[in-house]
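Much of what follows relies on a compact textual record of a protein's fold. A complete example follows; check for yourself that the lines match position by position.
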Amino acid sequence: MDDIDRALAEEAERLELDPDALSRTHDLARRRRRTRRLAAATTALVLGAGGFTTTWLAFRGPSPAPVTPGSPTPTATRSPSHTASPSLSPLPAEPTRFVPATYREGGAEVMPVTFPDGTRLELVYPPSLGLAELGIVPNTYGFAEGDEFCGGNILARPFDQLGRIFGGNDPVASFDGPSGRAELWDGLRGEGQYLVFRFGRWQVLVPCLEGDNLSAAQAWADSLEGSAGEDGLLVLTASAPLTLAQVGDQYGPELYVAEGDPQIVLTLVNRCGDTEARREPDFARWCIQGQSVSLEVVVFQGTPDFSRQLEGGLRLRGVRKNA
C-alpha cells in the first residue's frame, strides 16, 4: 500500500502547482480547511473485498456550484435508540463484485461501461486481461457549497458496508429525499459519520464530520439522486447546492477495477495532459486520447507484464456524454 499512498500524495503535490488549480484559490482554501477536518474520517479506508485503499484528497473534487437560495430544508428525523434495524432496503451482507456484461468482437472483448456522471463508452481489450471479471466499482467526488460538514470522496459498493465502513445498532438520523431515504451512521474507522443511500444495487456513502451536521446531511439527501445506467453501473445526479465531479474538473468521474491485484483506476478527462507513460515497480500510469473524452489509466500492484499488455491493448470507443 506504500505505492498507493505515495502516488496519491504526489497527485496532491502536482495539483498544487497546476495553473488551473491556482486560479481557484478561494475554492482550494475552502477545501484545505475541509480536508483537515475530514481527514480522520476519510483517509486510508479499506473498502470491501478487494482491499483497495482510498485516500481522500483535498483537490480531487469539482468546481463549486452556484447556491440556490430559499430552497426548503425539511427537518431530519432522529432515530430512536430502540430502533431494531436500519430502514434502508437490504443488500448482500457479504462483499460481492459487480461484473458488467461483455461481448466478443473478433478477437477482442468489449465492455460497455457507464461512469458516475452518466458518460457511457466501450472499453475494448484482449480477452486474456479479464477486466470485467475483476469487478467494477464506480467512484466520484461531491461538495455542497458552503457546507463544511459533508462531502469529498463518495463511496459506492454493491453490498452492505455496515460493520465495514459504518456501524452501530441504529442510524443517528434519517432523511427523506427524492430517491428515497438516507440515513446518517457513525463511522467505524476513526472519527466521522457517513450519510448512507441506497440506489438500486448500490449502497452509497457520503463522509460527514461528527457534530451538528443534520442540516448539511439533509441538504445532501434533498439534492443527491441515483440510478443504474444501461449496464447496471451507478449514475449520480445532483441539484444545487450540491455539485458532483464532471469531466473537465480537476479529477473527473472514475471507475475502479478493484477486486484483488492488480488495482486499476480509470478517470475521465477532457484531454491527455501528459502523453508519456510513467512506469515504476507495482505502478504504471498513462492516458488514452479520445476525440471527445480521454481516459487516464493508473495501475497499482500490477506486474510490469500486465501493465504493458493493458497499455498496448486497452482502447475506448463509442463515447456518449451525459446530456
